[in-house]
Amino acid sequence: MKDPSHYPALPTFLVGVVLTLLGGALSIWSPPLADSLEGKVYDTFLRSAPRHPAPGPITIVDLDEASLERLGQWPWPRYRIARLLERIHEGGATAVGLDMVFAEPDRTSLAPLSAEILRDLGTRIDLTGFPQEALDTDRTLAATLAAGPFVLGYQFDFETDRGTACLLHPLRAAILDEGGTGAPDALFDARGVVCNLPSLSKAAGSSGFFNVTPDPDGVLRRVPLMIRHKGTLYPNLGLAIYLRARGGDAVLETGPEGIKALRLNGRRIALDHRGNMMVNFRGAHRTFPHLSAVSVLDGSADPARLKGRIVLVGTTAAGLKEIRTTPLDAAEPGVEIHANLLDNLLSGDPVSEPRWARAMRVLLVLLPGFLLTALLARSSAGWGVALLISSSAGIWLGSWGLLVYRHVFLPPLLPVVTLTVVFTVLSSMRFLRADREVRERTRKLALTQDAIIQSLAALTETRHHETGGHIQRTRHYIRALSDRLQRHPRFRDKLDDATADLLFRLAPLHDIGKVGVRDRILLKPDRLTPDEYEEMKRHTEYGSETIRLAKRMMGEDAFFQIAEDLVLNHHERWDGTGYPSGLREEAIPLPGRLMALADAYDAIISPRVYKPALTHEEAVRVIAENRGTYYDPAVVDAFLEIHEEFRGIAARFAGGGVEPELPPEA
After folding, report:
1. SS3 of residue 631 by DSSP
2. Orientation angle between helical segments 633-652 and 590-605, nearest 10 degrees
3. How far apart (Å, rounded) are the C-alpha atoms in residues 342 and 334?
4. Cα separation of 417 and 400, whole Å?
5. By the 8 A CB rule, do 289 and 60 touch?
6. What are the backbone angles phi and psi of residue 660, rounded to the nearest 5°?
7. pLDDT tens for each residue of 508-526
8. Residue 179: what pLDDT?
9. In sequence order, what are the residues at sequence separation of 6 or more whose Cβ sits closer than 8 angstroms to the Cβ of residue 217?
10. Measured between alpha carbons, how far is 666 from 664 in angstroms, rounded to an integer?
11. Which run of H or E residues covers position 418?
């Protein structure tokens, strides 16, 4: 069985598969945060979609500020409400819905009001001659409701059991069970109700609730079309108005997960399992035509706004209206929300989230995710970027197109986020893997360089065995000096870690030019003559020529430059009396100045055929005496601070036949 290292792309592939499967799982069991973010995407899509060309035949009669200013504060006497409804009916409205509830008897009715005055104050009021409609305004309103296509509104209560004597009008709908339990168990179930007076409910003959519940983020996107109360289904106000205006049959489709859809006159309205319809909002407030209630009462309203239209009676007056945040408006009155819902039912274009969209959402996570994983595991990152951009754009634009042209919302965020996460994580893994490979190649290259450097330096040892230990000692002297001078302001920028490392690795080459010196001079067991010494001095040039040849072949590089500075200049002196070029002070490259001291110290403490070895203390004294003449004063100062390290290095690499040393990273 092959080692896993033979399959470098396998970890990347496995991580990509795991991340994609995780995204698929989240698309099935979506967390609340994902739902909230998808809701924001839905809002953005809806705002950017082309607006509905014209709302349906719906008019809002508004109890607005002008009406209240002219006719008095709310609540109005019920006879005035009755007159308003009569005017609307006479104007030719096909159905009229009331976004209000008459839960208590009208206290402005003269008959009950006179009875209260008689009871409390002992004064009898003569009601002779008053119009009948003023004596009992509730009876007047009931008579009006009985004579027209009116639909009352009421409010379900989910916390208390009040409203036990209410007269409500249930939703008459057949149930089409498609493999479910036959009962819409997931519907909202209300305990109580705030309802209209029984006399009014009986007279109207039709009613619906106006409960709405925003999503957890406070935005109203869905409205329940039906709620269960004491085992019976009741319609939303908009649905009740639709049925009053258009009639026809209602069929409720159920399945294993609960409600699926509501069929109205053959038109299918998709619902979620709790009976909610996702509203396709037409626009901000006042998208639908408004008529002021006072203009209807005084006959100045445009008759065309009533004839043949469905009318909603409600209020947009400050302090009276119910305000909700919708995808298209931060403050939309409740009556306009009902108008949007009703228009969706009339047009048959509410937004749906069909069951197949769930499967499609999972596929949009898995298929591009697996393909992206395969590409990033086997191909270049460029192909991954191309797939990420094209897939994300396709999913996003496809989802927008489905909402705008097919009224289907396919949430795009999780597939796009999954692709982005897969690309980011796998690209990071590829980068880290490539970085490891580069660092490994760099490490091996450094080892190769060290091996070559020390092998070349060993050539000198074959010619002159005394230099073997010298090579190792001088490279460590250089390291010690570099470490100390890195703290010196003058050298901080010149001696970074990389330069110090190169000095350590290249130091063994400083005497490589001695290979070119003839044996009779290099191995002479006595002091050299002036002519022989001149030839010996040429070893710096021989070594420099070798380095320059490599530079011409490989190009300029810090590696070769430092090597040449070490080889050519390590016998230059601070006062300009050195060789081969007689450079002085700062003109001497720093590697040459460091090696000059390191080489001199080792020569002083080592025995030669022409002199005995001196002690460490004597070497320190000699170097200190030549501060500013032979050696850079700053380098000498650094040496004097760490000379004990030099003593330790000399002891560690004592002798002439020391084996070459592997670098620390080997």
Report:
1. strand
2. 50
3. 12
4. 16
5. yes
6. -55, 150
7. 888 878 877 887 787 777 7
8. 67
9. 36, 39, 40
10. 6
11. helix 413-463
Q: What is the mean pLDDT of the chain?
A: 86
**Alpha carbons 442 and 665: distance in angstroms, whole number:** 11
Sign, Cα dihedral of 339, 342, 348, 350: positive
**Nearest in space to 572 (alpha carbons), one of 614, 541, 617:** 541
* Residue 614 DSSP code: P
pLDDT tens digit sequence for 388-423: 899 999 999 999 999 999 999 999 999 999 999 999
Q: Cα torsion at 587, 588, 594, 600 (round to 10°)?
A: -130
Numbers of helices and strands, H then E, in the chain = 23, 18
Using a cut of 0.90, tell me whether the model's pTM lies above it: no
**First-last CA distance in the chain:** 29
Buried b (16+ CB within 10 A) or exposed e, 305-317: bbeebbbbbbbbb
CA 229 to chain centre: 43
How confident is residue 578, by pLDDT bands cut at 50, 70 and 90?
very high
Which of these CATH numbers, 1.10.3210.10, 3.40.50.150, 2.30.30.40, 3.90.550.10, describes 464-652? 1.10.3210.10
Q: Hey, where are the domains in the chain? A: 4-30+354-435, 55-104+146-347, 464-652
Alpha carbons 593 and 576: distance in angstroms, whole number? 12
Distance CA 537, CA 66 (A): 111
Whose CA is closest to 562, among 603, 509, 601?
509
Distance CA 588, CA 570 (A): 9
Whether 230 and 220 have beta carbons less than 8 Å apart is answered as no
SS in 3 state form for 201-255?
Answer: HHHHCCEEECCCCCCCCCECCEEECEEEECCEEEEEHHHHHHHHHHCCCEEEEEE
Strand partners, 150: 96
Strands 329-333 and 323-326 come out as antiparallel
